[in-house]
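ok new one. same drill as before - structure tokens go in, u give me an amino acid for every spot. 115 of them this time. try not to just spam alanines like last time pls lmao
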């Protein structure tokens, strides 16, 4: 099933891992997908998102492989729109130079942060 149509059941997961999926989705589809992931989390659940991140630009399009690499600020805005907050983030170490850095974000529902 395609990620933009995936609809996991409500409150079924403690942890979800989303790795190199966003690069193939539009902003709207990625935000909607993350919002569905948020709904699928059990209380205190977490979504891990691992993606390449560009530094300066809002995003970079690679026409060769039809992918989209977003900046940190761009990703944070999408997470926020999906009702998620960053609990922890880490840059992958010892990654080859000349490639976009890879960052993993641990995301939790925003409403739990306010409780």
């Amino acid at each position: 099933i395609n990620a933009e149509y995936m609809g996991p059941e409500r409150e079924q997961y403690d942890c979800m891992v989303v790795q190199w999926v966003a690069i193939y989705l539009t902003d709207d589809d990625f935000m909607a997908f993350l919002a569905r992931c948020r709904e699928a989390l059990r209380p205190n659940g977490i979504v891990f998102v691992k993606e390449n991140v560009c530094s300066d630009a809002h995003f970079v399009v690679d026409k060769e492989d039809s992918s989209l690499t977003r900046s940190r600020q761009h990703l944070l805005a999408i997470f926020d729109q999906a009702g998620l907050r960053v609990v922890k983030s880490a840059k992958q170490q010892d990654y080859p130079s000349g490639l976009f850095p890879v960052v993993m974000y641990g995301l939790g529902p925003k409403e739990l942060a306010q409780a």
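The mean pLDDT is 88. and btw Strands lie at 13-19, 41-54, 59-62, 67-71, 84-91, 102-109.
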